[in-house]
Amino acid sequence: MPQYSRSSSWSGLPPGRVRRSVSSRDDWTRRFDTLEVMGSQTRQQLDEHIAQTRQWQDSTSAQLGNISEQLQQQQSAWDAFFRSQGFDPRQHL
Q1: Domain residues of the chain, as ranges?
Q2: For residue 13, what are the contacts with CB-CB under 8 A and spacing of at least 6?
Q3: Percent of the chain whose pLDDT exceeds 70
Q4: Rounded CA gap, 54 and 48, in Å?
Q5: What distance in Å separates the CA atoms of residue 69 and residue 72, rounded to the nearest whole number?
C-alpha cells in the first residue's frame, strides 16, 4: 500500500482546493466593486446613446417633414401650372 506523506501545510481540504483567506474575500469584493463601476459606466453610456439617438430621430423626422411639405408645395405649383395651360393632371391619373 502506498504511503502518503502529509506536509505541515496540509489544510484538510482535497487536493486542488485552497482555503479562502480574508485577502481572497477582499479580492472578490474589489472585483465586484470594479464590476459595479463598469456596469454603472456602461449604463451611463447607454443612457447618453439613447438620448443622442432620440435627438437624431427627432431631427431626421423634422427634416423629412420639411421635405414632404416642400414636395407637396411643388406638386401644388405644378398642378396650378398645368391647369393654367388647360391641362388637369388629376383627371388623367
Answers
A1: 22-87
A2: 19
A3: 74
A4: 10
A5: 5
